[in-house]
Write a structure and sequence with these properties.
Blueprint (H helix, E strand, L loop, with lengths): L1 H25 L5 E6 L5 E6 L6 H14 L8 E3 L3 H13 L1
Parallel strand pairs: 1-3
Antiparallel strand pairs: 1-2
Protein name: Auxin-responsive protein SAUR21-like
GO biological process, one term: response to auxin
Keywords: Developmental protein, Growth regulation
Length: about 100
């Protein structure tokens, strides 16, 4: 019985941790959207929705549409460029 009870307690701890992690992954502040960037391993970035009005960002979205259509493998918008390119572009947009 003791082994069974400790197994249940351990499973509950794992479940709590996974729920906490999934809540963090899902939460995006109001006025922002999550995008995934990178060539191999996709990294999640949260950007202001105001970027959607910027021609440079719209170019990235068109490339994403050409490459992935509307079926993005990460479940969110996947931007097909390197992280360095994305960071340079978003830095430029943030300054303007």
């Amino acid at each position: 019985m003791a082994i069974h009870l400790s197994t249940i307690m351990h499973a509950k701890q794992i479940l709590r941790r996974s729920l906490l992690i999934s809540r963090e992954a899902v939460s995006v502040p109001k006025g922002y959207l999550a995008v995934y960037v990178g060539e191999r391993q996709k990294k999640r970035y949260v950007v202001p929705v105001s970027f959607l009005n910027q021609p440079l960002f719209q170019d990235l979205l068109r490339k994403a549409e050409e490459e992935f259509g509307f079926d993005h493998p990460m479940g969110g918008i996947t931007i097909p460029c390197t992280e360095d390119t994305f960071i340079a572009l978003t830095s430029q947009l943030s300054r303007s």
